[in-house]
Amino acid sequence: MADLQAIADALVQGDRDTVVDLAHKALDEGTPPGEILDKGLIAGMSVVGERFKNNEIYVPEVLIAARAMRAGMEVLEPQLKESGVESRGVAVLGTVKGDLHDIGKNLVAMMFQGGGLKVVDCGVDVAAEQFVQAATENNAQIVAMSALLTTTMPHMLDVIKAVKEAGLKVKTMIGGAPVTQAFADEIGADGYAPDAASAVDKALELLDKA
Ligand code: B1M
Question: Residue 55: which region, alpha, beta or left (left: phi > 0; alpha: psi -120 to 50)?
Fold first, then answer.
């Protein structure tokens, strides 16, 4: 049986090569990629987050762990995307202005693609006007935003306002560790999802209403 705890441990150590080797091994043994993601990569990153919060480790260690996480995600990516039959709709996706966290957003992108959506990934530190421009140019039905900092969450409201002002007929959805359904209701977002797997369900639900 695949040792998913060993993947989490290697990620915490920032040991990219071991993360990659063990992720390949787990896939070869038939472990579902979603399980490797949840119990290996995300479990490891939770430990990193906890240690970061407690000042037991600092930004360089977090970056090295993030690099290992990204390498592990690349191993899983083809299988996570596999079921995609493009395109059920177009989603513009980005991490909002002032925020450089992209791991969760990249996972959401993979899951969207797996759900058959075309994704226009605007990257990180994306201003409201950039979301509007990308949605207009790509005739998008969904504008999806990620934020990991309490200080950048308010920019989600800026995006929603800009989308409305531009008269775009799109649904907006938000997510990220500090984001909640209550916050989504407060700023008038059409949808919220707590994780990447439910984000694709929510996006498809919003498409039905678009
Ligand atoms: Co940052 N960081 N960080 N960081 N970092 C957090 C977020 C923090 C909680 C750490 C802590 O204190 N425990 C804290 C925020 C505190 C707060 O605001 N409440 C924090 C801080 C303070 C900072 C800096 C300010 C630190 C500093 O410089 N002093 C700085 C800010 C830089 C900036 O953005 N301007 C900073 C920097 C960094 C790094 C660059 C070192 C690195 C980012 C690397 C990268 O992304 N390329 C980093 C990391 C890695 C983290 C932690 C440890 C891990 C984040 C992560 O990737 N998680 C994080 C602590 C934590 O969250 N435990 C932390 C794994 C990822 C899979 O989860 O992104 O939550 P997540 O995504 C999930 C869901 O949220 C959801 O689906 C994903 C998967 O299921 N989801 C969506 C995400 N987007 C969605 C969108 C949707 C739907 C669902 O719909 C559209």
Answer: left
Residues touching ligand 1 (Cβ under 6 Å) are 42, 45-46, 48-49, 52-53, 59, 62-63, 66, 98-105, 107-108, 144-146, 148-150, 173-178, 193, 195-196, 199
Q: SS3 for 41? A: helix
- Mean pLDDT over residues 147-162, rounded? 98
Residues 16 and 116 in one domain: no
Range of the domain at 94: 90-209
Which CATH number fits the domain that encloses residue 68? Answer: 1.10.1240.10
For 171-191, the pLDDT digits (tens) are 999 999 999 999 999 999 999
**Could you tell me if 78 and 94 lie in one domain?**
no
What is the distance in A from the centroid of ligand 1 to the CA of 177? 7
- Examine the pLDDT at 152 and tell me if it is beyond 90: yes
Record the pTM: 0.87
Question: What distance in Å separates the CA atoms of residue 101 and residue 90, rounded to the nearest whole number?
Answer: 22
